[in-house]
Specification:
By secondary structure, this protein is mostly helical. The chain has twelve helices and no strands. Helix 1 (3-31) runs parallel beside helix 9 (122-150) and helix 8 runs antiparallel to helix 9 (122-150). The model has no long low-confidence stretch (mean pLDDT 81). It is a multi-pass membrane protein.
């Protein structure tokens, strides 16, 4: 099968999810009375799903730019932990900069599956997965912005679609691997720190603690 077709098949679940999530995002931007091209520019240049949702409220509240930048940094800090996994592989591609820019939670999950498959031209497939995924996000954004100018829709609870996608990725990873300790351990850490720190503060500490425990776990497994 052609590499583009294989990448398209792998990216299909993400593309469908992105289509609906970005459509909702485009609608939210229109409801905030922001021009449609701002939606497109954000999806093209920023391209961080969860933060783009938050950004709508920050812009409409006239939030200072420094506050927006700090919020973006903390909301996307998890990517500092994902990135090293594929840093060396991405550097072998002429699409290196785009692979970094388009690296998301969802493409990370697919990239893990690609790397586990041991097939040839892995980095090329990762590139097409990223390209197809962002294209879907852009199409959905444009559709949402267009529909929002025509139909006065009210969106409540639409942000849960992002949570639903994360759950889907976890289930897929669970089914793809025999060892479930990393998933269970990370979930326990997240739940404990959520209870201790609250919803607005637990994510970064959870990633730090989970990463440390996973490094120790990996080190112990190699010694056995």
């Amino acid at each position: 099968m052609d590499i583009k077709k294989r990448a398209f098949k792998l990216a299909m679940p993400v593309m469908l999810s992105y289509l609906f999530m970005s459509l909702a995002y485009g609608l939210m931007m229109q409801q905030a009375h922001l021009a449609w091209y701002y939606s497109i520019l954000a999806s093209l240049l920023i391209y961080t799903g969860a933060f783009q949702y938050v950004l709508v409220g920050l812009i409409t509240a006239s939030t200072p730019i420094m506050t927006i930048l700090i919020t973006a940094l903390f909301m996307n800090a998890r990517l500092f932990f994902y990135g090293p996994t594929f840093a060396k592989l991405f550097k072998t591609s002429k699409h290196y900069l785009y692979l970094i820019h388009s690296f998301t939670d969802e493409t990370y999950g697919i990239d893990l599956k690609i790397s586990d498959s041991k097939q040839e031209k892995q980095v090329d497939m990762m590139y097409y997965v990223a390209l197809f995924s962002q294209t879907s996000w852009l199409v959905g954004t444009l559709l949402g912005a267009t529909i929002g100018t025509i139909l006065p829709l009210q969106l409540k609870g639409v942000e849960f679609c992002m949570t639903a996608m994360f759950i889907t990725i976890v289930i897929d990873q669970w089914e793809s691997h025999d060892k479930h300790f990393p998933t269970i351990m990370s979930a326990v850490v997240a739940i404990v720190l959520l209870g201790l720190l609250g919803g607005g503060q637990f994510m970064l500490p959870s990633l730090l603690v989970s990463t440390l425990l996973l490094v120790i776990y990996d080190w112990r497994m190699k010694d056995e």
